[in-house]
Design a protein that fits this description.
This protein has 418 residues and is α+β, with helices and mostly antiparallel strands. It has 4 domains: 54 residues; 114 residues, Immunoglobulins (Immunoglobulin-like, Sandwich), CATH 2.60.40; 44 residues, no CATH class; 176 residues, Rossmann fold (3-Layer(aba) Sandwich). The chain contains 9 helices and 19 strands. Strands 16-15-17-18-19 form a 5-stranded parallel beta sheet. A 4-stranded antiparallel beta sheet has the order 1-2-6-4, with no helix packed on it. Helix 7 links the parallel strand 17 and strand 18.
Amino acid sequence: MSAGVKRLWPFTLRGTGAVLLAVAGFVIAQRAGIPELLYFATLLVALLAASAIALLLTRGTGSVSRVVTPETPEVGGSAAVVVRAGLSSALPTGPGRWSDTLPAGLTGRAEGASAPLASTLAGGAGTVEVRYDVVGASRGIHSIGPLEVTTTDPFGLVRRRLALGRTTAVTVAPAIVDLAPLPSASGEAGGTRQTAALQLGQGADNLVARPYAPGDSMRRIHWRATAHRDTLMVRQEEQESSPAATVVIDRALSRWSSQAAHAPGSDPAFETAVTACVSAIAHLVHEGYTVDVVDSDGTLLTDPVEGGDDVEARAAAAGFASLRARADDPSHRVVPATVSALLGPVVVITGSLSPEDRATLGAAGLHSALPVLIVVAEHADLDALQVAGWRATHLLPAGDVALAWDDAMEQGYARVGR
């Protein structure tokens, strides 16, 4: 029996045997003239009919709820899915099966046996609760469901399939790869190695005290300034500043395949670029930088991520679950024009570069303390860009992001050793 026919056939293996026995009983009783077989066959038919009627009284109640933990799994990461569905049956049911429909972006075994249901004539409603694990296969927003529950009558003769509830959207974020620490030379741009104490409204060389105001703590009185000015003075508040870094992901379609604009997960090169982008964001934030993430046309892709806030960095990565390539802007830039004026670390992730692209990059990152260029393509000619000061590295589609990052960092060590 084919899978399609088996799915439409309402009888279980035991019920199929009962149907065959009933047919054989009718045939033999008629030809051999044995009335007992006729009674037996009629009893089997009545039993099958009663089982079918009992299952018709089984119905879904309420909606299906799914709890996914963690709420936003990463590509390659696992998540637990707990599904609860309400079912009611006038008569007890036998053990059944359940299955949840998984999209292509999630993998796992979402099926299993379900426990029997007790009769709900007393007014209560039964609940089917199942659990399974999924693994993020591709970045994007994917829908799980509907849930299908197969119930059987108490004798296990007839089965009924019920599709319950609606689908549940699950966001699969790009994977964050652990990257090697920044070279010590990048401390010139800040990070955890350097912080700036800013006086409110004052420069570093100006006075560090101001007149006392009601509500100021007595512990902040600046006694030397008080004696000098003959009036109560308090210490100026200091504000810790987090140095800035910039991550640029070039979404211009001309540097990726046409699939990159269709749906997340369809272009291996663009997916690798997104992974490199979120990994760089998380790494720079962990190092203490406040990170701006922009497109090559200067569009801000997410709110600035504060330095040291690893949770916010992962939340920003989840926001890139649906990121796609876009049509080229008229300027056809690889990096925004403002990059050439940035002093902090600049990480640029782009695709296939033309000779014109390489020429326009030139000294764009010359002022940065850490200019990193990651080119995700099958082939890349980066010698001239490395000479121009970029820590340029080639990353194959679906390649090792951490290894490419290591290559960029080692270029900095080589320059220091010259």
